[in-house]
């Protein structure tokens, strides 16, 4: 399922000491199926590893997953690390981002302030993240792709 | 080069001393004194004997809190109110990472403030005496449950502390739990754990060992789980362990689950040496739970029903609060009692379901393929075979966070809800078996009017928490 | 002499007018207006259509409170939070005894003080308008459930009030519910109820009728329950009812319950006229519940599992608070959701259990014996046959409080937990069938090392609330 | 299973408008098996019906069952009715005798004051009631019976 002519690379990983792998496995499959080149860093990925991989692969997007409730502390200073490494990419975060019963809107604000372009909850469908990324990267689906989406 | 060979006695002693110097409480371990302590325990606290002589499935919950008196209270509650047959002591995450200093800080804080800053019982910090106080205070056998890649000091202290059962293994506590511990490293470390258990066994104190069957807990194809159990069972047997409980995590399809438990028992007895007493443990659903206690009780009950039919030696129960994490002791007891009621109502019934034999046969053939490839990769040595087979991807575990497994295999349910393999990657399986899986998944695709794709995998991962077994497309859902 | 014959139109009108003069709200009934009201209802409130077109078991709880707004709130909650497919309105005890004055006092008191002094919804007192407000406010089909020997006025008002399903029957709402109402009297009164439902049916408003399958709710042998269902179904069909839901109460043995539901469906279609659409309803365990919500959830889940395998058209759910009486609406919803989760996880699985066909065959043979004896007693007339068969004891119901049944038959579970007949009294059953029961009970006696005796009956009555299916002697119990 | 030489008659029934029949069915079986002549009046039995049956059958014991929680009101004046009819019999009551969470000892006191010789809760084994009645009627078990009890 190819679209446009050039490929787009995304870096994907679970930040901190979180070992939840199912979500990013599904995301890897979904983004690959949607035509992206996916660099999956796996679980327990440090801020530096995200930055390094984004530079090495000239990634257009950095997708961070966190499911164990410590995302906020794991992401402190993350965007400074990306900037220092010279990463110029869209950054998303998704998962169970807060331990408590906070309203998701408050959580979204917190992570937007940390520098993420988009913030998703754990119920988000992979298709929605793909859709958002296409919009942010101004990728237009091909005819065949459009057919698939509407089916 | 590390091989499946018994650690010599002098080497055992050398490592043991080295290990015990890692943390002050290590000094409290004295093997002869420990043997004497174990011999002083009454029959009904001897884990292996109680488990092996039971005439119906014994129930065991999960539970661990940092302070000793709280842990005693918790276990007594689960025994009295939950009517548990066997008890657990779940170890905290710092101890699992061998961060005893941090565990100590957490324990100190818990003692000062009463808040539980640790997510389990730091047995190393409690030391031999602390463990024995727990064993003395609670009137049932207790198992150590954790998730520790390097569990050598934990084993040394808890064995000396009177625990007679110890969960885990070099693959099952590496692949699903950690990213960077090499498999070779964890095998070496677990050889010590098993060798130590074997040393107790030689002296008549049979330490029960229980490889962790559910692995990543998410749609693990039965044959992969069973192959890992057989490898870990063989490694433990080599080191002298004589009571081994092989595990399996419910996938939710009754026929496949009963078939898998039958195959586990059958192949366990076949692949492990005759001198080992093989028992089995069934874990109630380890995947995502519904965010609703009422529906969670349905999931738990389906596990109880499966256990009543398959009759494993032990069942690890879930609580209706599984969705939200650590349950209250009331909810934990409720999970035990719900399971008990279902088992006790169903176990005397003659429930023989069609197709279990065929499914068991398929699982056994698949498992033999995997065992064959392990033996071939290792030229007959299980340790080398396991390392090389994981390295080549001939052996693999789906959704494995570890760098030691490719994690490239992907499962999906077939039209009947049985877990099949959708993406084989490099898994070494006979072509005719692959065809069977393909045909079953193709049948599902036809039913659903969609292509076989990772979407099925994604839908299946969420299905039970969403209230169904199979992740059907939304358009096919309820009104 | 009362016979199984359709009440003539003029007779119907005469009784109808007489009945409606029994209480002021009777005046509010106008047949043509009622037809118009029913025709105005949307498709998803048409009980018979919704039930008959479902592709998997629909769930329905029990619920009734005195005040209209409370009843609306309760049903909306069960619909939204419990995800019930069909809803009930359970009628209070005074109305069941035709004590409308006392019901009015209770309703007035409930309105004044807010306390529920009635144990259900006094539909007669609420009248046609009150009923229609309920039907309008709640977005699902609603059934009237009660236990009324003389339900003529209740039927007249609730049918005109928009209800399209009505539980009960002359035997099933007499034998288990009341001591002194004669069977002849209740048959005559229910002929009117059925004839009235038939009058609506003729005009295109199909009122669904549901004989109460569980009868006395305690270890009722399936063939006895099914025979009563067939008799009541036939009587209703004679009066023009065309949508009949035959009921069966879970006994707890999965094979026997699935076999009984299969037999109920099979024989229902065979014995009832072709123009009747026969559906089935499965009641979760109606006997004593464990005094523990966790264990009660296990009982409920076993019901869900059975329903997933047998796939009746409807399931009446229990709540985890069954032991303590009327459940909170939260507990009632929980029972629905637990049942739903089990059914949805199990229903797509191919679970075919050995021995169901044999058990079904036995149940069908037994039922035919009972139906034959009824036809013989009545010289071909079902009404006379039923009266005479109950009178002679050739037809009997265990634990029947009514003077109309001998209540001399006693059931006991066999070694597999299936309900057999221990004391036949005068029940008219072929000797070879009796021998089968005897052999099965003898097998249990051998297992338990005791004589067959009423002790087994007593032990079985308490077994499920004590946590088991079969009432084994204490000495054989758990440690 | 016969004991002594003469038979003893007990009258059994569920009082008031209670229709719970299972308990007395079991009791009927148990007392019959223990050698008593049982007159089972069934459910929904009035005070007068108990008295009448006790006189007609010269009963030595009147056993009242109640499971629906209204026993206290159903039994008001019961012993006066028995006395007026000239009944000279031991009287027991058993079942769910109170609706609320009262201590059973308090319930026992209430019914003792109403005139019952013994009061049992719903968990009572039929054998215990039989044992008590034998004691109260000074019936000695035969040898064979004694063997059965100890088995």
From TrEMBL, chains A, D:
Top-level taxon: Archaea
Molecular-function annotations in GO: cobalamin binding; metal ion binding; methylaspartate mutase activity
Keyword Isomerase appears in the UniProt entry: yes
Enzyme class, broadest EC rank: isomerase
Signal peptide: none
Domain B12-binding positions: 7-140
Cofactor section: adenosylcob(III)alamin
GO biological process, one term: L-glutamate catabolic process via L-citramalate
SUPFAM superfamilies: Cobalamin (vitamin B12)-binding domain
Residues reported in the UniProt entry to bind adenosylcob(III)alamin: 17-21, 65-67, 96-100
EC numbers: 5.4.99.1
Pathway recorded for this protein: Amino-acid degradation; L-glutamate degradation via mesaconate pathway; acetate and pyruvate from L-glutamate: step 1/4
UniProt catalytic activity: (2S,3S)-3-methyl-L-aspartate = L-glutamate
Keywords associated with the record: Cobalamin, Cobalt, Isomerase, Metal-binding
NCBIfam families: MthylAspMutase (TIGR01501), PRK02261.1 (NF002612)
Function of the molecule: Catalyzes the carbon skeleton rearrangement of L-glutamate to L-threo-3-methylaspartate ((2S,3S)-3-methylaspartate).
Family to which this protein belongs: Belongs to the methylamine corrinoid protein family.
HAMAP family: Me_Asp_mutase_S (MF_00526)
Subunit structure: Heterotetramer composed of 2 epsilon subunits (GlmE) and 2 sigma subunits (GlmS). GlmE exists as a homodimer and GlmS as a monomer.
Name of this protein: Glutamate mutase sigma subunit
Natural source organism: Haloterrigena alkaliphila
UniProtKB/TrEMBL annotation, chains B, C:
Alphabetized InterPro entries for the sequence: Cbl-dep_enz_cat (IPR016176), Glu_mut_E (IPR006396), Glu_mut_E_C_dom_sf (IPR014714)
Taxonomic lineage from the root: Archaea, Methanobacteriati, Methanobacteriota, Stenosarchaea group, Halobacteria
Pathway(s): Amino-acid degradation; L-glutamate degradation via mesaconate pathway; acetate and pyruvate from L-glutamate: step 1/4
Signal peptide annotation: none
Gene Ontology biological-process annotations: anaerobic L-glutamate catabolic process; L-glutamate catabolic process via L-citramalate
Annotated protein name in UniProt: Glutamate mutase epsilon subunit
Subunit structure: Heterotetramer composed of 2 epsilon subunits (GlmE) and 2 sigma subunits (GlmS). GlmE exists as a homodimer and GlmS as a monomer.
GO molecular function term, any single one: cobalamin binding
């Amino acid at each position: 399922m190819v679209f446009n002519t050039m490929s787009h690379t995304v870096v994907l990983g679970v930040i901190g000491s979180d070992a939840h792998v199912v979500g990013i496995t599904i995301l890897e499959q979904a983004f690959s199926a949607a035509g992206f080149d996916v660099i999956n860093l796996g679980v327990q990925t440090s801020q530096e590893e995200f930055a390094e991989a984004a530079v090495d692969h000239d990634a257009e997007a950095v997708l961070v997953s966190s499911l164990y409730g410590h995302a906020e502390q794991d992401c402190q200073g993350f965007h400074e690390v990306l900037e220092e490494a010279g990463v110029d990419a869209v950054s998303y975060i998704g998962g169970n981002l807060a331990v408590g019963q906070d309203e998701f809107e408050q959580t979204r604000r917190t992570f937007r302030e940390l520098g993420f372009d988009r913030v998703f909850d754990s119920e988000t469908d992979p298709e929605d993240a793909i859709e958002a990324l296409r919009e942010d990267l101004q990728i237009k689906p091909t005819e065949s792709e459009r057919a698939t989406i509407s089916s | 080069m590390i091989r499946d060979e018994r650690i010599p006695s002098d080497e055992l002693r050398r490592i043991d001393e080295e290990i015990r110097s890692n943390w002050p409480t290590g000094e409290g371990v004295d093997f002869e004194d420990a043997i004497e302590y174990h011999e002083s325990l009454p029959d009904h606290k001897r884990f292996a004997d109680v488990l092996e002589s039971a005439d119906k499935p014994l129930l065991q919950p999960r539970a661990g809190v940092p302070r000793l008196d709280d842990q005693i209270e918790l276990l007594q509650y689960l025994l009295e109110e939950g009517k548990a047959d066997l008890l657990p002591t779940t170890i905290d995450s710092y101890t699992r990472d061998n961060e005893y200093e941090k565990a100590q800080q957490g324990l100190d804080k818990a003692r000062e403030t009463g808040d539980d800053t640790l997510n389990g019982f730091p047995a190393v910090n409690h030391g031999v005496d602390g463990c024995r106080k727990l064993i003395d205070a609670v009137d049932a056998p207790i198992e150590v449950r954790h998730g520790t890649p390097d569990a050598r000091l934990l084993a040394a202290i808890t064995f000396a502390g009177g625990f007679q059962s110890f969960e885990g293994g070099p693959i099952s506590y590496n692949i699903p739990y950690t990213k960077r511990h090499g498999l070779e490293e964890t095998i070496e470390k677990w050889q010590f754990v098993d060798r130590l258990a074997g040393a107790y066994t030689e002296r008549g104190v049979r330490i029960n060992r229980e490889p962790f069957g559910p692995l990543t807990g998410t749609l693990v194809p039965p044959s992969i789980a069973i192959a890992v159990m057989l490898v870990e069972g063989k490694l433990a047997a080599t080191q002298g362990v004589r009571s081994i409980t092989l595990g399996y995590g419910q996938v939710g399809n009754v026929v496949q689950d009963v078939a898998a438990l039958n195959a586990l028992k059958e192949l366990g007895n076949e692949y492990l040496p005759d001198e080992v007493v093989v028992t089995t443990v069934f874990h109630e659903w380890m995947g995502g739970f519904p965010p609703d206690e009422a529906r969670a009780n349905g999931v738990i009950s389906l596990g109880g029903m499966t256990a009543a039919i398959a009759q494993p030696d032990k069942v690890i129960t879930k609580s209706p609060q599984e969705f939200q994490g650590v349950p209250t002791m009331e909810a934990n007891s409720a999970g035990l009692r719900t399971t008990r009621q279902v088992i006790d109502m169903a176990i005397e019934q003659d429930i023989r379901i069609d197709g279990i034999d065929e499914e068991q046969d398929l699982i056994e053939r698949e498992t033999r393929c995997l065992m064959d490839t392990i033996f071939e990769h290792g030229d007959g040595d299980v340790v080398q075979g396991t390392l090389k087979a994981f390295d080549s991807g001939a052996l693999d575990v789906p959704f494995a966070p570890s760098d030691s497994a490719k994690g490239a295999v992907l499962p999906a349910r077939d039209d009947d809800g049985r877990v099949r393999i959708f993406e084989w990657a490099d898994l070494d399986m006979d072509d005719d078996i692959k065809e069977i899986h393909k045909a079953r998944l193709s049948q599902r695709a036809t039913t659903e009017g969609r292509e076989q794709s990772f979407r099925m995998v994604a839908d299946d991962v969420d299905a039970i928490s969403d209230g169904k077994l199979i992740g059907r497309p939304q358009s096919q859902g309820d009104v």
